[in-house]
Predict the structure.
Amino acid sequence: MLLAYNQEKELIFADKNTKRKETYFCPSCNEPVYLKKGEIMIPHFAHYQTCTQFVFSEGETKEHLSGKKELARWFYLLVAEVEV
């Protein structure tokens, strides 16, 4: 997933500047999630394996996540308000 809430209930977009040591929560189930960023996939949030809630966006390919990110940025430039 590309978005998660921080402890202040602000939606945070996963990117190279997002900090790993922060605490994040899933926008769907409110369970804790963690930031994954490395050399292969684009930055994104993932549920811990212990989460039993419905996982609504995990398992997406790098191309799918990249496409969602680029569409969100493009729409943001057009309409200034985007929800992923």
